[in-house]
Write a structure and sequence with these properties.
mainly alpha
C-alpha cells in the first residue's frame, strides 16, 4: 500500500469492503472471544467499547477515526488476578489501568 489516505480521504469501494470484513473479524475476537475467556459478559464489553469510542471521538473532535476494543494481551494477567482476587479484583485492575492510561503524559 503505497498511498496515504488522510482523515478526510475515502477508500475505493472494493478496498473499503474487504477492509471492513477484516475489521469485523478482528473485532469479533476482541469483543466476544476475549471476554468469554476471562469470564465477562460480551455485551458489557460491547457497551464499554462503544462508549469509549464515542468519548474518544468527542475528545479528538472526530479527527482520529478509531474504534476502541479489548486486547488478548491482557488475557493471562486478568485470569491470574481473577483466580486470586475474584471478578471484583479483576474489574478494579481494569479500571485502575484505564485511569492510569488516561493520566499518563504520553496519551
Amino acid at each position: 500500500m503505497d498511498e496515504l489516505i488522510g482523515t478526510e480521504g475515502r477508500l475505493p469501494f472494493k478496498r473499503w469492503v474487504s477492509l471492513s470484513f477484516q475489521h469485523l473479524f478482528s473485532m469479533l475476537g476482541g469483543l466476544v472471544v476475549a471476554p468469554l475467556i476471562i469470564g465477562i459478559n460480551p455485551s458489557a464489553t460491547m457497551f464499554c467499547s462503544g462508549a469509549g469510542t464515542l468519548f474518544y471521538l468527542f475528545i479528538t473532535k472526530k479527527k482520529m477515526p478509531i474504534f476502541l476494543c479489548t486486547s488478548f494481551a491482557y488475557t493471562a494477567p486478568l485470569l491470574i488476578v481473577r483466580e486470586k482476587y475474584g471478578v471484583e479484583g479483576m474489574m478494579f485492575g481494569v479500571l485502575t489501568a484505564g485511569l492510569m492510561s488516561c493520566s499518563s503524559p504520553s496519551s
